[in-house]
Design brief:
The chain is built from three helices and five strands. By secondary structure, the chain is an alpha+beta fold. It has a five-stranded mixed β-sheet. The mean pLDDT is 94.
Length: 117
């Protein structure tokens, strides 16, 4: 299996357990690995034979502007399912980091990995 990756995608979204925390968008950082058979694209050099990662980024931006989440776990699962279903990926791994959310921490977050069933 081949991998398309998107590294350190910074986005604004409404996220947090207390309602007040979801009132103002905050920065999150995503690292995404998308499993896909790239052999056809390697030979054809055609965007139609791969996943358009620009479209993936655009769709993630869109969905995060439309939705809010209490937990980073739910946000990561939402992105995984979106990529699996809308982009026909074979697998996806999403790391969601909330930078500087607690004193003395660079970031905290989760990594969620899903395989197409």
């Amino acid at each position: 299996m081949d991998t398309i990756f998107i590294s350190e995608l910074k986005l604004q979204t409404k996220l947090g357990v207390p309602e007040w925390e979801r009132m103002t968008p905050q920065t999150i950082i995503l690292d995404i690995e998308i499993g896909y058979d790239l052999s056809k694209a390697c030979k054809s050099d055609a965007i139609a034979d791969t996943i358009d990662y620009g479209a993936v980024v655009g769709r993630i931006r869109e969905t995060l502007s439309e939705n809010s989440f209490k937990l980073v776990e739910a946000l990561a699962e939402h992105i995984c399912q979106l990529i699996l279903k809308e982009f026909n990926a074979q697998s996806v791994k999403v790391k969601v980091a909330k930078p500087g959310i607690l004193a003395g921490l660079k970031a905290l977050g989760v990594v969620v990995e899903r395989i197409k069933s």
